[in-house]
Write a structure and sequence with these properties.
Blueprint: H1 5-11, E1 18-21, E2 25-29, E3 37-43, H2 58-74, E4 82-85, E5 101-105
Antiparallel strand pairs: 1-2, 2-3, 3-5, 4-5
The chain binds adenosine monophosphate and zinc ion.
Amino acid sequence: MSNCLFCKIVNGEALGDIVFESDSVLAFNDINPVAPHHVLIIPKKHISTLNDIDEKDFNVMGKIHLIANKIASERGIAESGFRTVFNCNKDAGQAVFHIHMHLVGGRKLNWPPG
Ligand code: AMP
Ligand code: ZN
């Protein structure tokens, strides 16, 4: 998608603070972190929201979870705990319409979310 910010980070047109890359998945630090660790993990292919995934996306959506596991472990927050979130559409406050997992950790997180 030519006007999608995260597609631009994938193809190098926009700068991202990249922490992991594979053939199908990219992870980068959130530009406005809400916790000591705040990483966005995305499929390289454009998918707008969680409403838009289907069976052909099982593999990449599974890989995104494995990468969250790996990053949390590398950063030493796997045991203390962390949160993964996909915001979907306006009631969840989704601002960037290229599906992304937020991996947030490094402090005590409240529940329920605001
Ligand atoms: P959401 O509200 O779930 O759509 O989250 C979008 C996230 O993207 C927010 O946490 C923003 O801080 C983050 N964000 C926006 N632009 C950039 C960027 N250029 N690089 C990294 N993170 C970004
Ligand atoms: Zn995109």
